[in-house]
């Protein structure tokens, strides 16, 4: 009998419209970092 496969649980990703983008480039590498800004309520 074949084994039943269980689908992995999908994770909810929250996307903010406000954030920062940091780009660092060297001779053969480009590093892009995204940082979101959380507002304290």
How would you describe this protein?
The protein is mostly beta strands. Helix content is 0%, strand content 34%. The protein has no helices and 2 strands. Strands 1-2 form a two-stranded antiparallel sheet. A hairpin with a 4-residue loop joins strand 1 (19-25) and strand 2. It is flat, with a radius of gyration of 19 Å. The mean pLDDT is 79.
What is the residue-mean pLDDT, rounded to a whole number?
79
Return Rg in Å: 19 Å
Q: Provide a count of the helices.
A: 0
The N- and C-terminal alpha carbons lie at a distance of 55 Å
Relative helix content: under 10%
Task: Indicate the structural class.
Answer: mainly beta
Q: In what range is the share of β-strand residues?
A: 25-35%
Low-confidence stretches: none
Major beta sheet, specifics? Answer: 2 strands, antiparallel
Rough outline: flat
- Written as H for each helix and E for each strand, in order along the chain, the element string is EE
Please report the total strand number as a whole number. 2
What strand order characterises the main sheet? Answer: 1-2
Structure characteristics:
mainly beta; 34% strand; single chain; 41 residues; two-stranded antiparallel sheet
Briefly say what this structure is.
With 41 residues, the protein is mainly beta.
Layout of helices and strands, plus pairs?
Elements: E1 19-25, E2 30-36
Antiparallel strand pairs: 1-2
